[in-house]
Structures are given as C-alpha cells and as structure tokens.
Amino acid sequence: MKTIVIGAGTAGCLVARRLSDAGDDVVLIEAGSGEPFPPSIRTPNWLGAQSEPGWHWPKLTATRTSASLPTPYLRGRGLGGSSSINGMLTTFGPIADYEAWPISGVRAAIERVSNDNPTVRIEPGAFSTMVCERLDDAGWSVGPAPLALSESSSGLVRRSSTRYLEGAPSIEVLPNVEVDRLILGPAGVQEVEFASGERCDGDRVVLCAGAIATPVLLLNSGIRSDEIGRGAADHPSIAVTYSLDGGAVASGPAHGAPPISMVAEREGVQVLVMDHIGTRVDDQGLGVITIALLDPDSSGSIGIDRQGQPLVDLNMLSAGDDRRRLVGVCREVIGLVEDVPHVRCLEPIPDGATEASEWVDAHLGPYSHVASSCGLGRALDSAGNVHGVAGLRVIDSSALPHLPRTNPMLPTLVLAEALAGVACEPNDRPSSGP
After folding, report:
1. Residue-number span of the structural domain to which 430 is assigned
2. What does pTM read for this prediction?
3. pLDDT exceeding 70 applies to what percent of the chain?
4. Where would a tag sit more exposed on the chain, N or C end, judged by fewer CB atoms within 10 A?
C-alpha cells in the first residue's frame, strides 16, 4: 500500500514511521528543508532556532484579540516542524484530559511516547531559583523543567521528531514541496497536487500539516464544513521583562544554555522563568517571566482569504473569566518578585483595572500552541477520518479534541501514536487492487 503523509512535523514523522513499520510504502511530503539541522537548531538554546531563516513561516500572522492587528506567529517549517524550533518543554499534563478523548489505546500510546522521549533536567539559573522560591512559598507547584534534549559527544542537543525517521525501511521524503490541494475523485482523496502543478497519487492520504496548515489545505481543496478551522485555541500568555544584575545574572555562555530550567503551575496557570533572552553575552542581563493560562475558555478559528492564505483569529480573552484571571495572576506573580534582590521589573502592571486590562492587551502573546482546529468528534471521526471524504485522515495537533492543558508536543505525539495504531490495523487499510 502507498500512503501519502503531508507534513514532516511533530506528528508526521511519527505517523510515517509507524505506517512504514506496518509495511506501507510512505511518501512523506514536507514544505520546508530536508537538510541537516544547523547549529542554531541543535543547540539547547532554542532562541537561536526560532530566528533561523528558512525553519519557520516568515509571513504567517495571527490576530490575538478582537482589538488587535495581526502579528507574526511562529510555526516550524522543515523536518521536525515545530518540534525543531520550540522551547523543548515536554510535559504530559493531566492524564484525565487523555481519558476524555474519544479514542482507544491512549494509555498504551502515553507509555510508548514516554519511553521514546526521555528528557533532561538542567541546573536552574540564578533568576529562576530566586523567582521559584517565591512561587513555592506562595503555594505554586514548582519543579525542574523536563526538556527535549539528548546527550551527545558535543554536549546537549535538541531532540525533535526527526528521530522517528532514522532507520525507517520504506519512507521517501520529499522536502521543499508545498501541497496546494487535495484531489477528490470517485474513491475519495488518493492524489495531491503540488504548488509546481505536479501530482502524486497513493492509496490514501494522511494529513499531518499542523493546526493551521491542515484546515487551510482542507478549505483550499474545497472540503468545506462548519467544523473545519473552528475551535482553534492557544494559551494566552504575558511575557514580563526584568533587568538583572549581580547575583541574578546567568553564569556561563548564554549562547549554549537553555533559557528555561524551572516551571511552576497552579490552577490552570503556568509560569516559566527565562534566565536570559538570547544568544549574545549582553542578553544575560535580561530575564523574562512568562505567565500563561493553560485552560482558557476562549477559542477562535482558522480560515482562508481570497488568495487561499491563512486567516488565524485566536480570539483570546473573549470568553469566561480568561481576562480577569490573567490580570489577577499577573498581579500576583509580579508582586511576589517585587523585592527580589538584583531584579527590576521593566514593565510593571498598572494599579487601575482599566489600565491593567489595557496592559494585558499590549503585552498579550500566544505560546504558539494553537491546536484543536478540526477536532476529533467535530470535523473528524474518532479515527481521524474527515467526515464525508474517503481516503483522507488527519493526524496532527488540529485533531486534538481540545487545547491541552500543557505544552502540546507530547499530547500531539500521544494522539499520533494512538491514531497511527488505528491506521495500521488490517481492517483500516483500503484495498489497492480491484
């Protein structure tokens, strides 16, 4: 059987490997580079990776709130997708979230993903230690950040989903190939068309292009449903910058050190402390505290404009208590750090309610964790099949039933592992003969 997998990102590399191991001839199509990682991506300091030309979508933008203009939105491009440029924090989040998914085999998938993705914890920096001591005293759950790093002869290096492709028996990787549309025929989707006009056919297509590109490709292919693109959500976050001096300044070379070493959580809120903000020595004099809602009520949509380009409306802080909660937790965290020695907040939150709300709007950013833009049980059935379209399955973060209450890499891998298992079952494999 020949299976076309579109997108060699976090989910796509895993899916391609599982289908290959099951005997499929897999064509793995990736819009970005297939070259080996440059040093900026291999290094534990992911800030260099996020500015590496060619490894993200430079023109992609998103609207955060109804009052904001579109601003750049980070998504990985190239082998490994966003797993090659993300902040490397790998946590499963609440197990109860997985148990609510409408699919079987989740427990086994969690175990396999856990075994396949060992993490590294590093020595916390001075700023992280100071801040997390205050958070711990205030009742936050504080601990070392589990990072997607591996030991190598040259030290710690990033672990991305590309490792799933190593030693695969029957995967043909087509890098630097953009898919323009899926071709619908009498038997469903068995062919895709590239931006060049060339086509590639197979027995079935698995769409792993991610939470933005997947609904965009579906819509551009004429596959329309009220559920495609609806429900897209991200974790609203605020990044507060601090000036550091004396004992708060990170020791060692900033260019090689992960910015994040500690994580704190409480009641659906995550706090990350960055001990430095870049790759230069001068960047060691600044730190950042990022405060994010992991369980927002608000959600938005992914659509397309008249030219077929993505329209990303995250619609943050529009529902429930999202805005009030984010203002309140920002006040708390900034207040806890107010008298920490050698630390000065450069962007304090104002006292007044109106001013504080405006401050949140001005500082609001996403975690670049957009997910659930198609959703199992909405645009997709419980196996990831697109309703009403034969031969087409979606297995990526767009298929997550809801926004995970954690960083999305591991939940995406768990979903991919579980749904790839279904796709490998004999009764799920379409016949390629008469």
Report:
1. 1-34+78-117+160-233+370-434
2. 0.94
3. 95
4. C
